Amino acid sequence: MRRFFLCFALLLCQFVNANAQGISTAKPWTYWWWMGSAVNKADITAQLEYFSKSGVGGVHIIPIYGVKGYEKENISYLTPQWLEIMQHTIGEGKRLGLGVDMTTGTGWPFGGPNVTPAMAAQTMTVVDGKPSVKPTGQKVKRAAPGGEGFVLDPFNAAGMQQYLSRFVSAFAKSAEKPRSMYNDSYEAYGANWTADFAAQFQSRRKYDLLPKLALLADSTGNAEATLVKIDYHQTLAELLLERYARPWTDWSRQHGFVTRYQAHGSPGNLLDLYEAADIPETESFGTSRFDIPGLRIDPDYSIDQFGTPNPLAMKFASSAAHLSGKKLVSSETGTWLANHFKVSLSQVKPQIDELFTAGINHIFYHGSTYSPEKEAFPGWLFYASTNFGKSSHFSEHFPLLNAYVEWCQRLLQGSKPDNDVLVYFPIHDLWATKARSGGGVHLLEVHHVDRWLLDLPFGKLSERLWKEGYAFDFVSDLQLKKLSAGNDGTLNSGSAIYKTLVIPSATYLPEETLKELERLANAGAKIVFEQQLPKTVTGHADHAQRQKSFVESLSTLSKKSNVKVSNDLNADLAENGVIREQLAEKGLTFIRKKDANGSPLYFVANLGNTIQYGWVRIGEGKTMSRNSPLRGESLMSIRTLNGHDEVFLDLHPGESCFLEGAADGSDLPFSTTSKKELEIKGNWEVTFLSGKPSLPAPAKLSTLQSWTTLRDSAEYFSGKARYRITFDLKGSLKQYEGAGISLGDVREVASVKLNGKDLGTAWHIPFRLHAGHALKAKGNVLEIEVTNLSANYMRLRDQQQPDWKKFYDINIVDITYKKFDATRWQPMPSGLLGPVKLVY
What we know:
Blueprint: H1 2-16, E1 29-35, H2 41-54, E2 58-64, H3 80-96, E3 99-103, E4 111-112, E5 122-127, E6 130-135, E7 150-151, H4 159-171, E8 180-183, H5 197-205, H6 223-254, E9 258-261, H7 270-275, E10 279-285, H8 303-306, H9 311-324, E11 330-335, H10 345-357, E12 362-369, H11 398-413, E13 416-417, E14 421-424, H12 427-431, H13 457-468, E15 472-475, E16 484-485, E17 491-492, E18 497-498, E19 500-503, E20 508-509, H14 511-522, E21 527-530, E22 536-537, H15 543-558, E23 563-566, H16 569-575, H17 582-585, E24 589-594, E25 600-605, E26 613-616, E27 624-628, E28 632-635, E29 638-641, E30 644-650, E31 656-661, E32 677-679, E33 684-692, E34 699-701, E35 718-727, E36 740-742, E37 745-747, E38 749-754, E39 757-762, E40 768-770, E41 780-787, H18 791-800, E42 831-834, E43 837-839
Parallel strand pairs: 1-2, 1-12, 2-3, 3-8, 8-9, 9-10, 10-11, 11-12, 14-15, 14-19, 19-21, 20-22, 21-23
Antiparallel strand pairs: 4-7, 5-6, 13-24, 16-17, 17-18, 24-25, 25-31, 26-30, 27-28, 27-31, 29-30, 32-43, 33-34, 33-35, 35-41, 36-40, 36-43, 37-42, 38-39, 38-41
């Protein structure tokens, strides 16, 4: 434990001396919006210094709409002045140890002033059996000055090359360049056609689409119409990959950039699109419904409108990285986690833990907004994000979250995936269904995964595997081509090894995919079809003849000894050596990896309320040690049951840890975790220390309650208050040697001293700290400094000075996308709500 705290202290010191460090991907990075690009060098330096001292590893610049009253200070995108500011930012970043990424454009999606009407996104509808093609008319959303214009046609043959031409000339003379170019989620709404689409369709699908256009609107389940719709989507997917994703990545690499790509939202196969980039990036939008006691969920957030984050959607990005050997998988993190001024660090941590378990290891906060240093609170804010910037109510304690993320990401980035199962993604079954998005195409977004993932047999199987404790990745039709089979029946992608390939219950399968399955099976790979063989070959051309050959080949394939049509998937996976982790049975979420030495490494998060502690078998029953970023490192008590070693895991709801292979833990005695509790009661002295609008008068409480119930403007107070109490122990001092202190409900962060000794800062659920070393028998003095949110102050600010809401475009809205008005809010509970207990 002592070694851990020494390491932790050194880590915090590194934040202050970041100029001595190189750029770190282990540290979390942040989106950084430049409103109107009305930025200056002095304020850029000041904000970069804040990020560096806080433990942030880098920034991602996104120019967006401007601020009223600052029009004369706007800098047009990619002008010499803008590029000079960019050069300054990158230079200062290097001085401070911060990386810099940028969007290849402003706002989103790709588009701008050099996108001509002929290059702009097009939509096709069928009128009297013929194609009626029109521009979508969509323009760049939230564009910055100099970035306005039409959205690029993502299927256009020469569109990407022409679009990127302005960046070639802009960066031709730039000595300093960003690390990465970024492509935001698809959002080219209604785009479903391009000038040569009919010709491309005929070349690729071997028949003329135009006489069959009416079939695209068929809703009767007509067999011919279904095959045509699949062919139509297949063509869109190929054009998107070949003409949009790959050219952008190729151009970026040629000019010295890596790429971060959010493929989701597109009509293509996400696995192929994510793999096209150097850093696949997913998104965590909204609040997951974790069953963690005390975890708040914003009641105004609309699930019907936005959906909730889903780890299966996140796994598309990490699967692409695992298969292709990419070290980094990133995430846009914290989008609309809760309403403005209402997000706590305790709400952020579980969302990040979920991302880690889904294979994400390069967190980008969503996010921070450039704001002039002279600007009064709350400064400039982006309309849809958690505020991780300098004006945030948790800025003082931001380094604690960042230290946690860095610790985790250092281990996650330094290890390799260790998943047993590859699950084939039968996207053609999705394309056979009616699309729920505009333009008649399926958009595979991270919001409503029920529209394209969860309702399919593929989605149901994936949910089952996730809940039952299997370690797995997804694989596409194209990615099957890179797999080879080992002598032991495993599948090798060149970067990862899997024990079994599972084909979910599916109706449609391309003949090219069947050939890949035959190749792998002939080489000895273990393949399991869930419940049934696919029934229909895709492709309308010469379908009857190809269908006959398809059925015969599939029947022959299914008779091989290493290929099974499974009626008992668990048994067949076990026979193939696939491990079913007990962690999931206990209600825990995890990712399994291998460290640099090949030893097992697990990140485990308790995102529910099923277990607090208990015996569990890890993997094949190996001895493990526990390594927690927040509680230290220790060996674990073990026992042998039915021939397998089990470890005793103490992990309360909201906690997380790493489990690593250990040499031996058998000499550790097992001590029960049946804890005794001593509630600390009495008269609490409450003193307000700092904050706004003014300091309320001191108070005394016999029962802990929200300070908003006090008089003297406390219901509007945002800041810090100290709670002080004196108490005696019951019984001998010795029994309290290993005691911890549980603070109960904290709104929102608590720094604790006991008898003058600093116990640390509790910033996430469960709010617990070690206390035994600081206790004495009589006269213990407990001091707890609690910092709340800024929401209550904004209730007053919006009454008195609503002039801070001065942004163009969408201005500032609440989580329901209605005009922001904090005056309607009720006071949010603040302070120490308790109960406060010693647990020993």
